[in-house]
Design goal:
Layout (H helix, E strand, L loop, with lengths): L2 H10 L1 H21 L7 H26 L5 H23 L5 H23 L3 H22 L9 H5 L7 H30 L1 H6 L4 H23 L6 H13 L3 H26 L3 H25 L12 E2 L5 E2 L1
Antiparallel strand pairs: 1-2
Helix pairs in contact: 2-3, 3-8, 3-10, 3-11, 3-12, 4-5, 4-6, 4-10, 5-6, 5-10, 8-10, 11-12, 11-13, 12-13
């Protein structure tokens, strides 16, 4: 193992390790009060924290993606994240790089996200074409590197494909906290601009907003969410958390902001229920979380039909957006 690189990474992440220890102490207190077995072990403390962060990150970005009809971009980036994991495992085996594959997955997924936008801009192809190209390339690269390095692998790739609660290490959880801060910070600072580009790209361009730059920012933050969620959801199911809670929220919400808040609540409920059921049933967490999310979506559809039946058919409000002379936007 590259001890110097590992030591440097641990030094950078040390403050986050301290936060994780505080979180674990809080969970231990709750365990002594409630006696719930799910709160007893350190790996479950990390899994719960990662799940709660994903429950905020995924719908926060997914709400913009769904309204831009880019729901499948999460699937494309998840496959490229798998290629990033394969790159990390390959480099660890060949040159003893000594870093977690989730870190290489972040780099590869962000590069792939930029390629999706660059292919669309350079060839005037529809976004689904560029997503299909990147998805295929990422999965092909991942399977090729895994097959070349199969003899030297000391870990199973199943944990990356299907997710695993017990594989959330302290370092992986700390990296997730960094991704969480970046995603929430970016959306918080650029929310109005992203909203403008989402609902009227042409008007946004006319008003002076750098639309292409915001499109790239959106796909890069999507890549960060995908890699973060991959730890417990797995590559195959990670895209669901970007879409399903948002789809449920749109059934019962009447404005973009309300949809954003409701989708986060639905995602958190899905994550907590899914992790709890997976722990006590001994099932794969990713699959159970998605099944919980789909069940909540079905319930949301039913509630939405009841609302419509009572005549609550007011048109959704997307938020009032005004432009200033310098091209910035505000509600």
């Amino acid at each position: 193992m590259n001890i110097a690189l590992q030591t440097t990474l641990d030094t950078v992440l040390a403050p986050l390790y301290w936060l994780l220890s505080l979180w674990s102490e809080l969970m231990n207190v709750l365990f002594r009060i409630t006696g719930l077995g799910i709160l007893e072990y350190a790996f479950m403390h990390r899994a719960l924290l990662v799940g709660l962060c994903i429950g905020v990150m995924a719908p926060l970005i997914g709400t913009f993606l769904v309204h831009r009809q880019l729901a499948l971009i999460g699937d494309a980036l998840a496959h490229t994240a798998f290629a990033g994991v394969a790159v990390g495992l390959f480099l660890n085996a060949v040159i003893d790089l000594g870093v977690t594959p989730y870190l290489t997955a972040v780099v590869v997924a962000v590069i792939a996200a930029l390629f999706i936008e660059l292919i669309s801009e350079a060839t005037d192809a529809y976004n689904d074409v560029s997503m299909a190209i990147v998805l295929s390339t990422g999965f092909a690269l991942g399977t090729t590197l895994i097959s070349i390095n199969a003899g030297g692998l000391t870990v199973s790739v199943d944990q990356y494909l299907f997710g695993n609660l017990s594989t959330v290490t302290q370092q992986s959880a700390a990296i997730l906290l960094v991704l969480f801060a970046v995603v929430v910070g970016v959306v918080g600072l650029t929310r109005n601009q992203l909203l403008y580009v989402t609902f009227d790209e042409t008007a946004a361009a006319v008003s002076g907003l750098p639309v292409a730059w915001y499109n790239r920012l959106m796909v890069m933050t999507t890549a960060l969410v995908v890699v973060g969620a991959m730890q417990i959801m797995g590559v195959i199911l990670v895209a669901a958390m970007l879409v399903v809670p948002v789809a449920g929220a749109t059934q019962v919400s009447r404005s973009f902001t309300e949809s954003l808040v409701v989708s986060v609540l639905l995602a958190e409920l899905s994550v907590v229920l899914g992790i709890a059921v997976a722990y006590y049933a001994g099932a794969t967490a990713g699959g159970v979380v998605v099944l919980c999310a789909v069940a909540i979506y079905v319930a949301a559809v039913a509630v939405g039909r009841v609302q419509d039946g009572h005549g609550d058919d007011a048109s959704p409000e997307m938020g009032a957006i005004t432009t200033t002379d310098d091209g910035s936007t505000g509600d």
